[in-house]
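User: Hello, can you help with two protein structures?

Assistant: Certainly.
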Amino acid sequence: MGDVYPQENGNRSDVVWVSLTDMRGEGLFVGSSSVFNFNAQVYSVEQLEQARHTYELEPEPCITLHVDLEHYGLGTANCGPGALPQHQLRTKEFRFAITMLPFAKDMFTPSSLAHTVLSLPTTDSMQASTTGV
C-alpha cells in the first residue's frame, strides 16, 4: 500500500449554518438561506498542495474555512467513472449570500443566531457545529 497523499478533505454539504468556536466558546457563525458546503482545516490549501506526505503538514495557528455554494461531484473519468450528471457543475447564473457573525456562547448560542438571523427553527438536527478546533 502506498503512502497517504495529502489532499483537501472533510467537505460538509447541505448545511444552512455552521459555527466554529474556541475552547472559551467564542467563535464565528456562518449561515445562509440557501444550503451550502463548508470545510474547516488547520492546514492551508497551499500546504495541502505542496506536501507529498502527511508528516510534512504543520497545523496553522488559525483555521482555514471554505464556504461554497456547490461542489463538483466525485470522479474525474481519469482512472474510473466521471461524476454523475446530477453532480456535475454547469455554468449558470446564481445568487448566493452568507451571513458571518462573531459570537460568544455566553451571549448567543449558534442555534439562537440561526433562528434570529436566518429565521430557522432551532432544532439540533439542522446544526453543523465544530467546537475546540
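That covers the first. Now for the second protein you mentioned:
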Amino acid sequence: MNKLVAVSSKTGNTRKVAAAISDAIADSKLIEIEDAPLALDEYGFVAVGFWLDSGHADDKALSIIKTLRGKNVALFGTLGGDPSSAEAQKVMDETVSYLHESNNLVGTMWCRGRISETVLSRMYELYPKIRNDKKHLERVALASSHPDEQDLVNAAVNARKWMECLNESV
C-alpha cells in the first residue's frame, strides 16, 4: 500500500511532526498539502497534518481532508495549548467529522507547538487583556519549546501504531 503524509505548516511545528511520522512509516512520501496531487488514488494510507487556526484545523488541511474517499486516514495537529484538553479533543472531533464515511480512521494525535509571534500579536490586538494574563503567559512559555524531541518520538510511536492497525510493516 502506498502511504502519504501530507502537511500544512505555518511555523514549521507541524512539518517537524510530519517528518517524524513519515520517517517512522516505511516507504511513505512526505509532501506539503499545496503540492499534493489533485487525485490521491494511488495512496491507500494518508496522514494529514494541520495547525490550529482560530479554533479549527487550517483551511489547507481541511481542503484535503474533505476530498479523501476510501482511504485509511490518520489526522495529527499542532496547537499552542494543552493537547489533552477538552478543547483540543473538540477540535479533533470536528476535524474528524469532515472525513467522508468511506474512510477508515486509524488514529489521531495532537502535539503542542510553539505559538508564532504573528499569532500572538494578532491575539493581543483582539484581546489586549490576555497580554498580562498569568495562565495565558504560562501556556505561551510552555509551548515555546515544542515540538521537542520527546514529542517527535511520540509522533513516531503513533505512526507505528497506525501501521500496526493496518498490519503494515514499519
